[in-house]
Specification:
By secondary structure, the chain is mainly alpha-helical. Helices cover 91% and strands 0% of the residues. The N terminus is likely disordered.
């Protein structure tokens, strides 16, 4: 890249650029002249087009939009509304909605009511009649005149054949026997308690005279004098040995 004019610094530090008026400056000037000859008319044409767009085309476009396109669009929308939407809505209303409402009101509703009336009087009422007089009434009759007397009879039989004999057996046989057995067992238990207490006192007396008294006499008249004699004979040597061991420990460990 060539440097000219007022530039004095080269691309590499410590190097001076080409001298003013050298070959690099002349080459740059020779290149700029053709570029200016080509670009200046193009720029002028661009500026002219921009001015024409701002001064002519934009006002014309706004005028066309305001006075031609907008009225035409509104007219088209009005025509579409009154030539398409309104007729289609009219047709839908009077060819679909109104006939459907009329059919629902004057055909489907009466037919549905007639079918419901027929179902009620031809199916529900006969079925209810049959259920009532073939199931409910016979069941009530059977419950009233068969099951209830049979239940009363079975209850009376159970009472006279089971409950009353069981109560009599308990009251006049089992309860007296159990009461007598209980009385005998209670009496025997009391007697066994007295016997056990007497045996316990006898055993305690035998233990006291056969074991405790001889042991007490032996401890008092044999073991105690022997212990005193042994302590009197062996006590001084044992104390001397203990004192000697203490002195040896002190001498060895400095205690």
């Amino acid at each position: 890249m060539a440097y000219g004019g007022d530039h004095t610094r080269g691309p590499v530090a410590g190097r001076q650029g080409p001298p003013a008026g050298g070959d690099g400056c002349c080459l740059a000037q020779l290149i700029k002249i053709p570029l200016l000859i080509v670009l200046v008319p193009l720029r002028l044409l661009w500026e002219a087009l921009c001015w024409i767009g701002r001064a002519v085309i934009a006002p014309v476009a706004r005028w066309i939009h305001r006075w031609i396109l907008a009225p035409v669009g509104r007219a088209i929308a009005w025509l579409a509304h009154y030539l398409i939407v309104v007729p289609v809505a009219f047709l839908v209303r009077y060819l679909l909605v109104v006939p459907a409402l009329w059919i629902h009101r004057w055909i489907l509703t009466p037919v549905g009511r007639a079918i419901a009336w027929l179902v009620h009087h031809l199916v529900v009422v006969p079925v209810a009649f049959l259920v009532r007089y073939l199931l409910v009434v016979p069941a009530q009759w059977a419950y009233r005149w068969i099951l209830t007397p049979l239940g009363h009879a079975l209850a009376a039989l159970f009472r006279w054949l089971v409950v009353i004999p069981a109560v009599a057996l308990w009251e006049y046989v089992l309860w007296p026997v159990l009461r007598a057995v209980g009385s005998v067992l209670a009496s025997c238990w009391r007697i066994a308690g007295r016997v056990a207490r007497a045996v316990g006192r006898i055993l305690a007396t035998l233990w006291r005279w056969l074991v405790v008294a001889p042991l007490r006499w032996t401890y008092r008249w044999v073991c105690t004098p022997v212990g005193h004699a042994i302590r009197a004979v062996c006590g001084p040597p044992l104390r001397a040995a203990r004192d000697a061991a203490r002195e040896v420990g002190r001498a060895l460990f400095g205690a």
